[in-house]
């Protein structure tokens, strides 16, 4: 392969998903020349195969259920969803898997876009293999940022490739609903896709290796989501592993560790993520190909003063919003170092420290009911050595919740640090609670004292009144 071109920049970003785009935006805003390299669609996993299409599939499902629990609307929405219309709605939100708009955005911030596979070729050097095999070299005066994200991790089952299993990509981009769907896993992708495809006409069987769903949240979150999925018709088998999978005459046959045969038209493995770092030249800078990249709080890769790993690749928090947060921190750190500013504001909650990755990571699971959490669960807080107390409230007792929909079922938990009298974590489960989580994130990230929260008055009658109920319960019991 012949090298045909070499271009120099202040910063080179590998990966043009939301994380890479934000790194480029922040470095360009600081006046640094920036190149961004993308091997697929500009906009990345979130735009085309994850956040946007999955939520576009789920929104009609949740809206219909809310309507079914609203007097005056319930009889109007008794029929099935229009699957064709839902899928068309999904396609609109993915821009029909075309990235023209995202490309225009990159050009609008003044970054140079290179299409092709970007690979490190030594310190501050990135080789790009473009369409047709054309090659060029990009050099970075100050920083290279690896923002290549993660991919679905499939188990090492013999013959799995021949089965053509779904991953999250196929699950969010399928052109029609399968008649029967096996979902393997109990995490976020598993429960969201089980929710969506069951409502769109599939008969879903959920095979969960662990004891329950959403194991990283408070136990009641998984319990309430499981109860709702079961009520919607999903069959959930916990404590179940898949020993083998075959496709026989078009039918998928999964054999469990108990020897049971489960048949379906498609099988989705939602069993974890792996870093997309296996073909980006890590070996040329002394790093292991295919590995997660450990970083400090400024997102600088351990042992390197020019290499940053931002987003999923550093394995700190595999969430788009946290990756974008890290990108803002990394962009500021790159700009400060390029300007010779020393020392960086690297203390906790400083301008160049991704402290929220440790203490205030929010997440929403868009099932019905929704599950939302930020900070530490009760178990995590206790394991971390904090002296804490958990306060629970039944959300059905909140006036705004009962107005939101008839028969509202949900629960809230606030974990309070008894030494500092601050909130360490909050979990909400119930319809519409995703819109509550930012208030909890502010309380946790801001380390707002409980006695100050008394003066944050929730509007009546909204579900936000749960904050008052939590504080009253903490005070009175």
From TrEMBL:
Residues 361-467 form the Pyridine nucleotide-disulphide oxidoreductase dimerisation domain. Gene3D superfamilies: 3.30.390.30, FAD/NAD(P)-binding domain. GO terms for molecular function: dihydrolipoyl dehydrogenase (NADH) activity; flavin adenine dinucleotide binding. The keyword Cell division does not apply. Disulfide bonds join 46-51. One of its GO terms (biological process) is 2-oxoglutarate metabolic process. Residues 9-321 form the FAD/NAD(P)-binding domain. FAD binds at residues 55, 118, 148-150, 312. It comes from the Bacteria. NAD(+) binds at residues 185-192, 272. Keywords: FAD, Flavoprotein, NAD, Nucleotide-binding. Its cofactor is FAD. InterPro entries: Class-I_Pyr_Nuc-Dis_Oxidored, FAD/NAD-bd_sf, FAD/NAD-binding_dom, FAD/NAD-linked_Rdtase_dimer_sf, Pyr_nuc-diS_OxRdtase, Pyr_nucl-diS_OxRdtase_dimer. Binds 1 FAD per subunit. Belongs to the class-I pyridine nucleotide-disulfide oxidoreductase family. This is NAD(P)/FAD-dependent oxidoreductase. It comes from Streptomyces tagetis.
């Amino acid at each position: 392969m012949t090298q045909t071109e070499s271009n120099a920049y202040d910063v080179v970003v590998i990966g043009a998903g939301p994380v890479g785009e934000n790194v480029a935006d922040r470095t360009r805003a600081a006046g640094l020349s920036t190149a961004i390299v993308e091997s697929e669609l500009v906009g990345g996993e979130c735009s085309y195969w994850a956040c946007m299409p999955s939520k576009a599939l789920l929104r009609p499902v949740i809206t219909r259920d809310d309507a079914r629990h609203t007097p005056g609307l319930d009889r109007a929405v008794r029929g099935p969803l229009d699957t064709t219309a839902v899928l068309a709605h999904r396609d609109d939100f993915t821009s029909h898997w075309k990235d023209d708009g995202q490309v225009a955005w990159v050009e609008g911030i003044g970054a140079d876009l290179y299409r092709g596979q970007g690979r490190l070729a030594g310190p501050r050097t990135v080789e790009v293999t473009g369409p047709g095999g054309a090659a060029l070299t990009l050099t970075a005066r100050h920083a290279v940022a690896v923002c290549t994200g993660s991919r679905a991790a499939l188990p090492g089952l013999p013959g799995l490739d021949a089965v053509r299993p779904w991953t999250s990509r196929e699950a969010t981009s399928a052109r029609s609903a399968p008649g029967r769907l096996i979902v393997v896993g109990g995490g976020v992708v598993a429960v969201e896709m089980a929710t969506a495809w069951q409502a769109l006409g599939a008969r879903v069987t959920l095979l969960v290796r662990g004891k329950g769903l959403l194991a990283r949240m408070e136990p009641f979150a998984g319990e309430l989501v499981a109860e709702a999925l079961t009520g919607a018709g999903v069959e959930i088998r916990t404590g179940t592993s898949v020993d083998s999978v075959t496709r026989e005459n078009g039918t998928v046959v999964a054999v469990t560790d108990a020897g049971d045969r489960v048949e379906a038209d498609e099988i989705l493995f939602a069993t974890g993520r792996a870093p997309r770092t296996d073909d980006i030249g890590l070996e040329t800078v002394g790093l292991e190909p295919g590995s997660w990249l450990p970083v400090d709080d400024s997102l600088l890769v351990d042992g390197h003063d020019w290499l940053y790993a931002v987003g999923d690749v550093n394995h700190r928090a595999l969430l788009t919003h946290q990756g974008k947060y890290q990108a803002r921190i990394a962009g500021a750190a790159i700009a400060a170092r390029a300007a010779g500013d020393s020392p960086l504001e690297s203390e906790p909650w400083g301008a160049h420290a991704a402290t929220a990755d440790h203490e205030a990571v929010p997440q929403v699971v868009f099932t019905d009911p929704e599950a939302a959490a930020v900070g530490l669960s009760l178990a995590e807080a206790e394991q971390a050595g904090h002296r804490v107390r958990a306060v629970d409230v039944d959300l059905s007792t909140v006036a705004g919740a009962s107005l939101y929909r008839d028969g509202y079922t949900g629960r809230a938990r606030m974990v309070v640090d008894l030494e500092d009298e601050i909130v360490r974590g909050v979990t909400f489960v119930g319809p519409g609670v995703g819109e509550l989580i930012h208030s909890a994130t502010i309380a946790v990230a801001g380390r707002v004292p409980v006695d100050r929260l008394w003066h944050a008055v929730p509007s009546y009658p909204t579900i936000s009144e749960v904050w008052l109920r939590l504080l009253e319960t903490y005070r009175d019991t």
